[in-house]
Amino acid sequence: MRHALKAMIFVAFTLFGADPGMLLAADPADISMPRAVAAPPSVSPSDLQALQLRLDALKQQISLVDNYSQLEAPQDLVQMFMLDVDRLSTSLLPLQTQLRAQLGVLGPVPRDDAAAEQPDITAQRVALTEQKNKVDATLKTLATLKTSATDLITQIAGIRRNLLESELTLSTRSVLNPEFWSPILSPSMDDRQRFASFLGQASEVVKLAWQPGQRLYTSVLLLLALLIWTLGRRLAERGLTWLCIHRMPEGRLRRSSLALASVLATVLTVGLSLQLLFYVFTRQAPLTPTLSTFSQEFEKVAYTCVLITALSRALLSTKHPSWRLPALADQVALSLKPYPRVLAGVLLILVTMIQITNATGMSSGIVIAGRGVVALVVTCVLVDLLWRTGKVRRAVVASGEAYEAGRTFAGVLYTLASLAMVICLVSLLTGYVSLARFVTYELVWGFLILSGFYLLMQCFKDACEYFFSIKSPSGKALKQLLGIEDRRLEQISIVLSGVGRAGLLLLALVTLFVGGVGTTLGQLLTNVFSILGGAGLRKLNIIPGHLLNAALALLIGIYLIRTLGRWLDKEFLPKTEMDPGMRASLTTLFANIGYALVILLTLSSLGVQWTNLAWIVSALSVGIGFGLQEIVKNFVSGLILLTERPVKVGDLISISGVEGDIRRINVRATEIQLSDRSIVIVPNSQLISQNLRNVTLGGSAQGVASLELTFPLDIDPEQVKDLLYNTYREHETILDKPAPMVRFSKLTPEGITLTVTGYVGSPRIVGVTKSDLLFEILKRLSDAGIELAKPAPTV
């Protein structure tokens, strides 16, 4: 018994990190058993109660919301609540693991009285079990709180969607109606009191920060924030610019790094100055709930305005045109230069006033009027921008100078923005103010997303091209370390660049539809992950929203397929060892599979479940049985041609009297180009089911240039044979092996018929070679005084 107890204690101390060597010589009586964990759980019942009260307060706040914009701050608070719950749960997990391990060492309670254990072990087990139960109960409570918070996030999303739909369809007075402006020009007494209360709370905060004894410190902090905002930004931008110029390799990577450095310098310095300002006015006392809500919303608007100016300055690069990423004409960039600052200033002032009305809970009339002012002013700025830019673009085109690349895409964006401005103006004139405000905000949000992700995509592409370049140190190191060929490194660079840019493009499209002006990074990530990881639509609901999503999915899918198809055909596949026919077949197969996936994605966007497609399959089976047999047969035959490749693009084939080169293999039919450049469309099923002669399938097919000539009976056959043989052998396109050959074909009363045969390198040059040989043979026969046999006269 003594040795068994000693062995058990040895194992226990080994598990918990003690030195067992110190225990081997010790007596069990002198060794105390492991004690229960003395530290109580780090989460007390009062903490759990505080979390529950906090969650209940959030639910009550959300239930009283009647404005779409008022849900942004509660959503952030719920996200913070979930992070706090996760932090507490993580802190308890090690304690739970330790208690389980200690209970495992002690083992279960003995059932046999003969094996009764010592009282101190029983007491130890009871104490550990009690602590473990407390920790388990606490973790279970935290998990329940997190589940409730997650459900609340889902409910907030539903409320936001419903409020947005109701606001967009809400019809108010037109901006031309004088009563529309009356809430701003002559606000009600209640609105005045709310605004006065806000100003009073703000003045109290300023007084606390400017009280005697704190004025010098406050002045220093305000001056420091101003210096960081202005001088600090310039110094940070110059420092990062110097770093990029002297540390980044020369080329496109340096150019994209300069643009990214400019954006980062602006955002970081402005963010630091904003945090410093917040500290100045909150170091003495916390803000009131109204001011706290306003400060959070003001911070979002400030970051939005900063991103507008930072991205515009980085992409336009009017001071250094050679650093400019988009291929814009200098005149266009200069015409766009003043508008980002104007737009940012307008949004900062007007949206800040709107946030004051939201934070103080003013009447709906003044909120709607404020939205109208924001939409009207922003629309006027954007209309002027589009008008001036369009005028400059037309002048650039008329002058014949170099114009921006991607003109089609730029034209599409210009058209969409112009259409959006028309919708805004019509909405403001007809009284749909919230719709106009929503469209203007979405335009600003779209600019931020497209510009930001364009910059990231360019940086990623340039980084891949540099790091896998055979001229860069990293490329040379990879080549030496892994023994990769230069062509493989280039292929890896193209594949990684294409995959990365496609992923960023997909993320940009998702972000474009789940965010908006004033969306925080936490909200954005939550919405993106919920969409990318969601189960999708579960019902067959054909509604306008689903139709819009389906149309967008179809257009974006077709654009992606064509873009990736051009990338495969022009960039990736030419770097491989595949022949042109195989490359064309792979490009066609990729396009066919891609279009099929786009159709399925469009059906999903419409809300059609895969289980609801049984009626479509049934209808197709009936249609196939009657009228679609040939189409399906040709479709399957096309897939067989693309996979088994009995014929490929570029092959010279002959089928049913048609001989020519395969130009393209489509899903239903194959295009064959004849010698006269005309095209014959042959169904794919004929290429599979009929006898087909593929002249170039072996890859080394030769052409046969054979001529049959008849001479009079009185000629010298040997002389004519040598003349024909030498003519063939001396021609540059006739191969030496197999050697030319002259045969005595037949002997008739009309004359002697000789056949001369030679081989050329390709069947495609047989006709030209035979023509040249005939000219040369007739010339030599004339010089030798030999005539061809004349046909017998017909009686």
TrEMBL record:
<feature type="transmembrane region" description="Helical">
    <location>
        <begin position="368"/>
        <end position="387"/>
    </location>
</feature>
<feature type="domain" description="Mechanosensitive ion channel transmembrane helices 2/3">
    <location>
        <begin position="588"/>
        <end position="629"/>
    </location>
</feature>
<feature type="domain" description="Mechanosensitive ion channel MscS">
    <location>
        <begin position="631"/>
        <end position="696"/>
    </location>
</feature>
<dbReference type="InterPro" id="IPR049278">
    <property type="entry name" value="MS_channel_C"/>
</dbReference>
<dbReference type="InterPro" id="IPR052702">
    <property type="entry name" value="MscS-like_channel"/>
</dbReference>
<dbReference type="InterPro" id="IPR010920">
    <property type="entry name" value="LSM_dom_sf"/>
</dbReference>
<feature type="transmembrane region" description="Helical">
    <location>
        <begin position="339"/>
        <end position="356"/>
    </location>
</feature>
<feature type="signal peptide">
    <location>
        <begin position="1"/>
        <end position="25"/>
    </location>
</feature>
<dbReference type="InterPro" id="IPR023408">
    <property type="entry name" value="MscS_beta-dom_sf"/>
</dbReference>
<feature type="transmembrane region" description="Helical">
    <location>
        <begin position="408"/>
        <end position="432"/>
    </location>
</feature>
<dbReference type="InterPro" id="IPR011014">
    <property type="entry name" value="MscS_channel_TM-2"/>
</dbReference>
<dbReference type="Pfam" id="PF21088">
    <property type="entry name" value="MS_channel_1st"/>
</dbReference>
<keyword id="KW-0732">Signal</keyword>
<dbReference type="InterPro" id="IPR006685">
    <property type="entry name" value="MscS_channel_2nd"/>
</dbReference>
<keyword id="KW-1133">Transmembrane helix</keyword>
<feature type="transmembrane region" description="Helical">
    <location>
        <begin position="438"/>
        <end position="457"/>
    </location>
</feature>
<dbReference type="Pfam" id="PF00924">
    <property type="entry name" value="MS_channel_2nd"/>
</dbReference>
<feature type="domain" description="Mechanosensitive ion channel MscS C-terminal">
    <location>
        <begin position="710"/>
        <end position="788"/>
    </location>
</feature>
<keyword id="KW-0812">Transmembrane</keyword>
<feature type="transmembrane region" description="Helical">
    <location>
        <begin position="613"/>
        <end position="632"/>
    </location>
</feature>
<comment type="similarity">
    <text>Belongs to the MscS (TC 1.A.23) family.</text>
</comment>
<feature type="transmembrane region" description="Helical">
    <location>
        <begin position="504"/>
        <end position="526"/>
    </location>
</feature>
<dbReference type="Pfam" id="PF12607">
    <property type="entry name" value="DUF3772"/>
</dbReference>
<feature type="transmembrane region" description="Helical">
    <location>
        <begin position="546"/>
        <end position="565"/>
    </location>
</feature>
<keyword id="KW-1003">Cell membrane</keyword>
<dbReference type="Pfam" id="PF21082">
    <property type="entry name" value="MS_channel_3rd"/>
</dbReference>
<feature type="transmembrane region" description="Helical">
    <location>
        <begin position="257"/>
        <end position="281"/>
    </location>
</feature>
<keyword id="KW-0472">Membrane</keyword>
<dbReference type="InterPro" id="IPR022249">
    <property type="entry name" value="DUF3772"/>
</dbReference>
<feature type="domain" description="DUF3772">
    <location>
        <begin position="140"/>
        <end position="199"/>
    </location>
</feature>
<protein>
    <submittedName>
        <fullName>DUF3772 domain-containing protein</fullName>
    </submittedName>
</protein>
<feature type="transmembrane region" description="Helical">
    <location>
        <begin position="586"/>
        <end position="607"/>
    </location>
</feature>
<feature type="transmembrane region" description="Helical">
    <location>
        <begin position="216"/>
        <end position="236"/>
    </location>
</feature>
<dbReference type="InterPro" id="IPR049142">
    <property type="entry name" value="MS_channel_1st"/>
</dbReference>
<dbReference type="InterPro" id="IPR011066">
    <property type="entry name" value="MscS_channel_C_sf"/>
</dbReference>
